[in-house]
């Protein structure tokens, strides 16, 4: 291992990832801007949970924060504490304007864990919609709150929530680069890797256990895969020239990568252990930034074979590549939604690099960002949001936008640039 590289101690990283607690103080701050939702928001009241002061985190406040930043809910001030066993006066809550009500409690168990209980009510129908109990370690109370918010989101919106997921990104502060894993709201930062050399292009496996990335610690771009629970890492691609842009197949068995080993950069497939290299494209242009389709049958990629950078698609079995983007003369960094229906990418128009989404069936294109230096889009696992890197006031930050462009969030890290985001999968 090069002297310029430092791994977080394996036990600390493993415990933090499993429990959701940071070995270093959390520094992320989420600033939310919600626009364009109006009457589409569901009015909901989240009462204070009974005895939640016993837990390290205030469960009800985390749930409020999650639902507020989703853009789909309008929070009604509950102004009270209600356990899940207390009687509910539905008429009173309807008068307050709440169509849904969340109540719950926290109990400390003899073994040191907490029993977090919650119920969700439809006040209009005077009916319980959902509820469950979560045995929770003291280090996992924040995760339990996210899981409750996920359940509320799913029961009321009809789509699985993504609050209890993780994100990965790269920060630079001074001369140090860090590959960081954090909760979806930016809390509980865990540095998985530290280096004096650049780290780029992190990509999650669909089971959330590993991240592939490109490190320059060997004084050239090399593709690595790291197990996030054990800290074990290995080189997957270190061929002549540049090794870059790793992307996992849906089953996690192989990666699509970009290699310049034979001259011009082309797309290759390689097994997750670094064996079985297979060349996928052979053009007289630069082909890079591969991304598997949701079903694993195709690879989307960037190529300048038409005279300018555009996005193409080719079968994993090879053959003729078909052009996908036609609007604008400069379209890069393809990302496919989990349902395979939407392509996100960065387009340069009138000197601005901005995030766009393309409905692959209709060809309808939508500009999603109002910033001008966007890069590295990544879909949430439920397909409702896209995270991307951008700049605000000359500082590199992360932003999140809903696929309809109506909800926006910004995530910044104190005293550090933050780039290369990738949204992790649902964890089992």
Automatic annotation (TrEMBL):
UniProt keyword terms in alphabetical order: Cell cycle, Cell division, Periplasm, Signal
- Asked whether the UniProt record includes Signal among its keywords, one would answer yes
Q: Which Pfam families match?
A: PD40, TolB_N
Does the keyword field hold Cell cycle?
yes
Which positions fall inside the TolB N-terminal domain?
30-127
Q: Which residues form the signal peptide?
A: 1-28
What's the superkingdom here? Bacteria
Q: Name one GO cellular component term.
A: periplasmic space
**Subcellular location, record wording:** Periplasm
Please cite one Gene Ontology biological process associated with this protein.
cell division
Cited NCBIfam families? propeller_TolB
Q: Into which family does the record put it? A: Belongs to the TolB family.
Q: How does it assemble?
A: The Tol-Pal system is composed of five core proteins: the inner membrane proteins TolA, TolQ and TolR, the periplasmic protein TolB and the outer membrane protein Pal. They form a network linking the inner and outer membranes and the peptidoglycan layer.
> What PANTHER family does the record tag this protein with?
PROTEIN TOLB (PTHR36842:SF1), PROTEIN TOLB HOMOLOG (PTHR36842)
Purpose = Part of the Tol-Pal system, which plays a role in outer membrane invagination during cell division and is important for maintaining outer membrane integrity.
Query: What is the protein name stated in its UniProt record?
Result: Tol-Pal system protein TolB
Q: What is the lineage of its organism?
A: Bacteria, Pseudomonadati, Pseudomonadota, Betaproteobacteria, Burkholderiales
